[in-house]
Amino acid sequence: MKTYKVKLLEKSTKDLLNSDDSIWENANSLIDFSSPWDNKPVKKIDFKALHNCKDLFFQFKVFDEDVYIYPSNDNNESINKSDRVELFFRTNKNLNPYYCLEIDPKARIMDFKAQPNKKFDFNWNWPENHIKVISNRNENSFTVEITISIQALKALSLLKENIIETGIYRAKYNKIEGEKGYQPTWITWVDPNTNEPNFHIKSSFGVLELENFI
Prior knowledge:
single chain, mainly beta, Immunoglobulin-like, twelve-stranded mixed beta sheet, 12 strands
């Protein structure tokens, strides 16, 4: 399995999302993303993560000049048809269960609990007060930053010693030439080796390894 090493945050902070951006310079940079089902080049995605033994911090910086947000008053419908980043966490290799966070450039969260064969429970939510998301956009990119508590990860049986089995993804919506609609390009850190796009499969997960975790 692919492994990303999450460095220990040396500078003490309660809320990395409101900190100086220079803190992220100490994190490992993950840019190894691809779309195995599409021959078009994938624009750069820079993923970083840090921890301080109490919280886990993520940053997605997505380089894109043409971000699409689906117009709908229903948050889940809009997020599901919009450009977004995604994190899946599994409790075991059988995906029974696993937990999904899908976040759009407006920092809206679609969170749900899942079981094999795409059995989704949208009535489930990430534990209250144990997740925080902010985002910002400019003409060339958008950034999503996420804080998740270690307490919640332990309560959901997602943290095994210093390991979290994780899928890291991106959905990019492109206008269909000559038509009104948009269609997604599915982008992943780990190639699941499937004929059709599918993140909801055990082969699409890698490992986050928390360094110096106490």
